[in-house]
Design goal:
Radius of gyration: 29 Å
Strand order of the largest sheet: 19-20-21-22-23-24-25-26-27-28-29-30-31
Shape: globular
Number of domains: 3
Strand content: 35-45%
Largest sheet: 13 strands, antiparallel
Distance between the termini: 57 Å
Number of helices: 10
Structural class: mainly beta
Helix content: 10-25%
């Protein structure tokens, strides 16, 4: 079978076979990667596709989160529960909770005459139990048949192996290092594509729009599982995949001549809105000046009508002023995820609440006393473009934007502003080294009060009702100050916890420079003082910031007491908008355990509020001092709740998935950092959401 598969792929690559484009649906293999049954392929899902796959066979349960980072590049984080596995081929079997990362890059696209070709790295940043590298080629024949052939190293060179064809590049490719399962967290580049190699391959045949048959020849010998977790009697696997819905695939497989396996994948794409354009109430229409009242301007009456009109739409009026033929308003948008939507609704409200003599509307979103870029909209443009086919982008082109915050007056009469909320909370702990899923749930009490221009008081009190975070018995073995590794003690003793209680003051230092000072109980584990300056040059893709903190460790019960440990920390930060939704942040400085180093993070952010990214921190702490995992790293995910419910709201659900929580590279968590607050107030961000201006 392998010879046939390889021959077909080679024949196609040579250009001797014509193929039609095929609607064969993409499915995920048992490793949670696009592929066959247990093997990879060179097929890529749609750009930005996010999937969660769980699979089980032979005593192994693999849970994988995969993301199509670019159209060609995909990444996966995997948490596996492995029963009766040997850590070396000759050791006694036991259980292993394993975390691993994988990457695949498709460097050749499929064409009419050529297969798609991809290169992949499996478990390159984990224990190495699944470590392998491969090249895979996939070709489609007609509307139903797809064929994959490949060559693999590591795990994928266990059956039918031969001398490494890359040996001509140097002796280093001839021998593969012995696996060190206990090490974890390090990348051994010397091991990549080394040692013997072997061929693998398979076919997919689509019976209908919803059903696909698969067969493959696997070169994975399962050296750590064969004879303990299950018996590997054959290199052939057979499967059936059912597309239950557009976002759910379920597979049943007969694997290695002895095991029945199941795989289920749940798929979404942050680029696509889940509930159309949303469930918010319809906006008010523009009132034409011919029907607007014409008596002399009464600024107080216009302010009252504007306030009532905005309040009905979930927008708060902070300031109102009239100068000549111009009405200027400052607004607080606590409802709509895109400020552009709040700006559009404000403009239409002003067309109703101001007399016809007013010809220009100036709208300024304000957050924590920090004014955003002012938007100048001509009333005549609103009237002309309301029903124009391209009204959103025409209105943006005609608007004028002013980024001088000195033109926005501080409005004392708008304060104090208060916001109280009571609701449920869920705190998950995913892919813990000892347990794949832990979580607490309870009730949360939040209060925010902006008592003067730029002065904000905020706090959150939580009471746990149910959960098992406190059941963790993982004892810290850290040789560093235990700034994070005692997390389970905070979970255990903090049944009723003061999550934070702080006062923050935001202010303008100079044009394009903003400042923040925050004091109080800053996060569950630390309290103290934090100061920050941010230089954000307009119409530039970068910002620079500096932050200095002096903090003390809080008691485990998260009430008002402190422990003895205290430290000064701080970072210089570079923020870079790379375009196409990709944002990079580099932080360099001192961390909570006193170590010095840097954190690099890359996030893909979508206009609808989704954000998916990864980060890694490298400090002077060695991998041995850091402990399990070798260095701090993780995946962060933010989901806007409006995307889930369709209702207009600005709150989000955010989580960080770390393979393990240790003390090295731990940074203070402070709410309201300046870049997070100010970036949505810039013209570039208005532009990204301007498609909702007329919503």
């Amino acid at each position: 079978m392998l010879i046939c598969v390889t021959a077909i792929v080679y024949f196609c690559a040579a250009g001797n076979v014509l193929a039609q484009s095929a609607p064969i649906f993409t499915s995920y293999n048992s490793y949670g990667q696009p592929g066959l049954i247990d093997l990879p392929s060179a097929v890529s899902p749609d750009d930005a596709e996010l999937s969660f796959t769980t699979s089980h066979f032979g005593g192994q349960t693999r849970n994988t989160l995969s993301f199509q980072i670019f159209p060609r590049l995909s990444g996966s984080f995997r948490y596996s529960i492995q029963r009766d596995i040997r850590r070396t081929p000759s050791s006694s079997p036991g259980d292993l909770f394993d975390r691993s990362f994988s990457l695949q890059y498709r460097f050749v696209d499929e064409t009419r005459l050529r297969p798609a070709i991809a290169v992949g790295l499996n478990d390159f940043l984990g224990t190495g139990i699944y470590s392998s590298e491969y090249f895979a080629a996939t070709k489609t024949f007609g509307p139903r048949l797809r064929v994959t052939g490949g060559i693999g190293w590591g795990r994928l060179a266990g059956v039918g192996s031969f001398d490494n064809p890359l040996s001509f590049l140097g002796d280093r490719f001839e021998t593969r290092q012995a696996l060190d399962v206990g090490k974890g967290g390090t990348v051994s580049t010397d091991q990549l594509f080394t040692g013997p190699a072997a061929f693998f391959g398979g076919i997919e045949y689509q019976l209908s729009d919803k059903v696909k048959l698969l067969a493959e020849y696997s070169s994975d010998a399962y050296p750590f599982e064969d004879g303990s977790a299950f018996e590997r009697n054959s290199p052939f696997n057979f499967g059936l995949t059912y597309k239950a819905r557009d976002n759910i695939n379920i597979s049943a497989n007969y694997m290695y001549g002895s095991e029945v396996g199941v795989t289920a994948s749940f798929i979404t794409n942050p680029k696509n809105r889940r509930i159309g354009s949303g469930r918010e109430s319809a906006p008010l229409g523009v009132v034409r000046r011919a029907r607007a009242f014409a008596f002399p301007i009464d600024a107080e009456e216009s302010r009252r009508q504007t306030q009532e009109g905005l309040s009905a739409q979930g927008i708060e009026l902070i300031g109102f002023s009239v100068t000549g033929d111009t009405a200027q308003v400052e607004i607080a948008n606590d409802t709509y995820f895109q400020n552009a939507q709040a700006i559009g609704r404000t403009a239409r409200t002003l067309s109703r609440s101001t007399p016809r003599q007013i010809t220009t509307f100036v709208i300024v979103p304000v957050v924590n006393g920090i004014p955003g870029d002012a938007v100048f909209i001509q009333r005549a443009d609103l009237e002309e473009l309301e029903f124009s086919p391209d009204n959103a982008w025409s209105s943006f082109a005609r608007a004028r934007f002013d980024n001088d915050p000195s033109s926005v007056p501080a409005v004392a009469e708008a304060y104090p502003r208060t916001k109280l909320s009571v609701g449920p909370y869920v705190t998950p702990s995913l892919f813990d080294p000892d347990d794949p899923l832990r979580a607490d749930a309870g009730i949360s009490f939040k209060a925010d009060a902006e008592i003067a221009h730029g002065l904000v008081l905020s706090g959150e009190l939580r009471h746990r009702l149910i959960g098992n975070l406190s059941e963790s018995t993982r004892a810290s073995t850290s040789v560093l100050p235990r700034v994070r590794s005692d997390f389970n003690l905070y979970d255990r003793e903090g049944e009723t916890a003061l999550v934070n209680l702080q006062a923050a003051y935001y202010f303008d230092v100079a044009p394009e420079v903003t400042g923040r000072v925050t004091a109080g109980y800053l996060e569950p584990m630390f309290g103290g003082v934090s100061g920050e300056l941010l230089w954000s040059p307009r119409n530039r893709p970068y910002s620079l910031g500096v932050e200095v903190n002096y903090v003390k460790q809080r008691d485990f019960d998260q009430q008002f007491g402190f422990q003895d440990y205290e430290i000064a920390t701080g970072h210089g930060s570079l923020y870079w908008d790379m375009g196409n939704g990709f944002h990079t942040q580099l932080d360099v400085g001192r961390y909570l355990a006193g170590d010095w180093g840097a954190t690099i993070g890359v996030d893909r952010q979508f206009n609808n509020g989704w954000s998916i990214g990864a980060f890694a921190t490298f400090t002077e702490v060695s991998s041995e001092e850091f402990g399990e995992g070798s260095f701090d790293k993780g995946i962060r995910l933010t989901v806007p709740l409006t995307w889930v419910t369709g209702e207009p709201r600005r709150d989000t659900f955010s989580t960080t998935i770390r393979p393990v929580q240790r003390d090295g590279g731990a940074r203070l968590n402070v709410n309201g950092r300046l870049y997070e607050v100010t970036r949505p107030l810039q013209t570039e961000e208005y532009y990204k959401g301007w498609g909702r201006f007329w919503r």
